[in-house]
Design brief:
Family: Belongs to the peptidase C14A family.
GO molecular function: cysteine-type endopeptidase activity
Keywords: Apoptosis
CATH class: Alpha Beta
Organism: Thamnophis sirtalis
Number of domains: 1
Distance between the termini: 9 Å
Radius of gyration: 16 Å
Helix content: 25-40%
Protein name: CASP8 and FADD-like apoptosis regulator
Length: 223
């Protein structure tokens, strides 16, 4: 990708611990970053609608959306904390070629940190899932979907703690050597680090789901 900027990066952080680092990471990759903090459900919907209509997509090569919130397995609650919340399946629908023609044929990257409420947490989160059956996303071309789940009790113990998934992702994207790799290769490194973290941190287990329908190798900087 070679457009300047590469595209719009929309960061919606309803927790507030990672927005600064994520902003720096995607700005370093020459994205136009729009960062929104502590949004309720209505505000998230308005921002997604507005982001899909941005004229900047026309001349860009890519779109990124980062979403951080409490939730359950397949929904986020935003700051309303109302169940069932916003269904993550709907997130990609705002940016399909039909809804956002300027992004047709362009990569659309989604990075989600979902802090799952304890009463909704199921299964063993100690494993890294790749191409698993935990969801049906994505269903259309040119989607990269990385969804990380972590028990929300971590926030109760340490309210200001950063997500290891997001901080590691940001670090890899800012590393002068790692960022030269195709995005999927970067995620092989990310998966390895998540796996090692889970091995030595029994009380803070990350479950990472990766799905994509990319049709080409994706480099976030010019090789």
């Amino acid at each position: 990708m070679q457009s300047k900027p590469l595209g719009v990066c929309l960061i919606i952080d309803c927790i507030g611990n990672d927005a600064g680092l994520l902003t720096r990471a995607f700005q370093s990759l020459h994205f136009e970053v729009h960062c929104r903090l502590f949004l309720n459900m209505d505000a998230v919907m308005r921002d997604l609608h507005a982001a899909a209509k941005l004229r900047a997509h026309k001349d860009a090569d890519c779109f990124v959306c980062v979403l951080v919130s409490r939730g359950n397995q397949e929904h986020i609650f935003c700051t309303d904390h109302i169940t069932p919340g916003f269904q993550l399946e709907r997130l990609k629908d705002f940016f399909t070629g039909e809804k956002c023609p300027d992004l047709l044929g362009k990569p659309k990257l989604f990075f989600i940190q979902n802090y799952v409420e304890p009463q909704n947490w199921q299964g063993n989160a100690s494993l890294t899932e790749a191409d698993g059956n935990l969801g049906t996303i994505p269903q259309v071309a040119d989607i990269f979907w990385s969804h990380c789940r972590l028990d929300a009790s971590v926030l109760e113990r340490s309210p200001c703690s950063s997500s290891y998934y997001l901080s590691t992702l940001a670090g890899l994207l800012m590393d002068p050597q790692k960022r030269k790799l195709p995005l999927l290769d970067i995620f092989v490194e990310l998966n390895s680090r998540i796996y090692e973290w889970n091995r030595i941190n029994s009380t803070e287990q990350y479950s990472l789901l990766l799905k994509h329908t990319l049709r080409k190798k994706l480099f976030l900087i010019d090789k």
